[in-house]
Amino acid sequence: MNIDTDLERIAAQERDLQFDRFDAADAWDLGCRLRAAAESRGVAVTVEIRMAGQTLFLSAMPGTTPANADWARRKRNVVELLGQSSYAVGLGLAREGTSLEDKQGLSLRDYATHGGSFPLRVAGVGCIGAITVSGLPQREDHSLIVAVLAERLGRPLAGLALDG
């Protein structure tokens, strides 16, 4: 893994994986797709989708724990505050050798710069919420979201995936 390469790829993901419009029905569809993708991979995750501070989808699969919901909350807080993928924020801070706690005084208890929360963006509007997955290693949480978003939006995953 090369941090600079991953950061460039994540910037492309955030730019290209935007909706033309998004509502509660879209959140339900996207959340069900994320859960189904996890099931097809034989993994257990917690999935949370929020828009404008309201939770529109929440699912904790068998095999997850309350800790997964807490990780989701902490990662989502990063996206809602900064409008960027929690993984991109974490990689950028690692490259700088710092943390959100050092840089902005934010409690690590409430903000996790680990992969797994992705900005929910609408073209022409910007970040309106967060799509969050918790239960896998951080790069895999992030990649699961990207794969499902690419499929849902009809975008080719080639060129967007971190490992492809």
Give a short synopsis of this structure.
By secondary structure, the protein is an alpha+beta fold. The protein is built from 6 helices and 4 strands.
Across the major sheet, the strand order is: 2-1-4-3
Q: CA-to-CA gap between the ends?
A: 12 Å
Shape: globular
Integer count of domains = 1
- Name given to the CATH architecture: 2-Layer Sandwich
Q: How many β-strands, per DSSP?
A: 4
> What are the secondary-structure elements, in order, as H or E?
HHEEHHHEEH
State the major sheet. Answer: 4 strands, antiparallel
Mean pLDDT: 97
Structural class: alpha+beta
Radius of gyration: 14 Å
> Treating each run of at least 4 consecutive H or I residues as one helix, how many helices?
6
Low-confidence segments, ≥5 residues, pLDDT <50? none
Could you name the CATH homologous superfamily? Haem-degrading domain
User: CATH topology, which one?
Assistant: Beta-Lactamase
Estimated share of beta-strand residues: 15-25%
Helical fraction: 40-55%
CATH class: Alpha Beta
Characterise this structure:
The chain is an alpha+beta fold and 164 residues long. It has one domain (3-153): 2-Layer Sandwich (Beta-Lactamase), CATH 3.30.450.150. It is 49% helix and 17% strand. The chain has 6 helices and 4 strands. It has helices spanning 3-16, 24-41, 66-82, 86-96, 100-104, 138-153, and strands spanning 46-51, 54-60, 117-122, 126-134. The longest helix has 18 residues, at 24-41. It is globular. It starts with a helix and ends in an 11-residue tail after the last helix. The mean pLDDT is 97.
